Amino acid sequence: EAGVAQSPRYKIIEKRQSVAFWCNPISGHATLYWYQQILGQGPKLLIQFQNNGVVDDSQLPKDRFSAERLKGVDSTLKIQPAKLEDSAVYLCASSSRDRRLARRTDTQYFGPGTRLTVL
Amino acid sequence: GDSVTQMEGPVTLSEEAFLTINCTYTATGYPSLFWYVQYPGEGLQLLLKATKADDKGSNKGFEATYRKETTSFHLEKGSVQVSDSAVYFCALSGVFGNEKLTFGTGTRLTIIP
Q1: Is A46 left (phi over 0), alpha (psi -120 to 50) or beta?
Q2: pLDDT tens-digit profile of A29-69?
Q3: C-alpha atoms less than 13 angstroms from C-alpha of A117 in its C-beta half-sphere
Q4: Which residue has the higher pLDDT, B28 or B91?
Q5: Are A63 and A57 in contact, with CB atoms under 8 Å apart?
Q6: FRET pair for A55, CA 20 to 30 Å: which of A19, A71, A74, B13?
């Protein structure tokens, strides 16, 4: 089974430029997440999709960040314009909800991440 | 809100030593608890998980027990190897409708031969 794919793996831009990241989740996974991991910290959720709908975007800086998952499969995360503090690794994860269980026990599978450096 | 407090690092041990990495959490309801590991140059991988009180998760010789009374999920291994050198993250997630993972800050573990 193929894992979560992300591209690019590395990106260097100057502040105020725009950048976009792409994620292809594991086939059949309905839930997709974008996390931001700043150096020395744990990942922080930016946005969660269930199929092509947004479940949680409360931590997404909406003045500069946007994300979409138009066909319920691939997703794109965009930053426009970038700031120095956006330098981080952007992680995509996916999971499949097991509806047979009363409580959620989904495992989130992570991609390799995109390391963004803003100069 | 939910939070995870993890043992500060870095941690350096000799091969075959006993490992404990402490993790405590604050959450409403009954979260699921996870340990993720990040090996050098690789992405986050699930190491083990527990979904209810007194459950024990185990994998690759690592164990952690979900202790609701102490809100803890400490990671242990009886005899570490050089290949266990990595960053370890404790995390929790809620029930349906709140599946996001809340992570600790991570503990860097280095094993010396």
Answers
A1: alpha
A2: 888 999 999 998 899 999 999 888 898 999 999 999 999 99
A3: 5
A4: B91
A5: no
A6: A19
How many Å apart are CA B24 and CA A104, to the nearest integer? Answer: 21
Closest CA to A13 of A75, A90, A71: A90
Q: A104, B106: Cβ pair inside 8 Å?
A: no
Q: Which residues of B touch A95 (CB under 8 A)?
A: 99
Query: Which of A51-55, B58-62, B85-89 is the least confident region?
Result: A51-55
Question: Can you point out the beta strands (E) in chain B?
Answer: 3-6, 11-14, 19-21, 23-26, 32-38, 44-50, 56-59, 62-65, 75-77, 86-93, 101-103, 107-112
- Does the CB of A113 have a partner CB in chain B at under 8 Å? yes
B→A contacts (Cβ < 8 Å), by residue, are: 4, 6, 30, 32, 36, 42-46, 49, 51-52, 89, 91, 93-106
Indicate the residue type of B10: P
Interface check for A24 against chain B (CB to CB < 8 A): the answer is: no
